[in-house]
Amino acid sequence: MAYENIIVEKRNGIGIITLDRPKALNALCAALIAEMEQALTDFEADDAVRCIVLTGSERAFAAGADIKEMKDKDYAEVLNEDFITGDWEAVSHCRKPTIAAVAGFALGGGCEVAMMCDMIIAADTAKFGQPEIKLGTIPGSGGTQRLTRAVGKSLAMYLCLTGEMIDAETALTAGLVAKVVPADELMNEALRVASLIAGMSQPVVKVCKEAVNRAYETTLAGGVLFERRTFHATFALDDRKEGMAAFAEKRKPEWRDR
Ligand code: CAA
Question: What is the pTM of this model?
Answer without folding.
Answer: 0.97
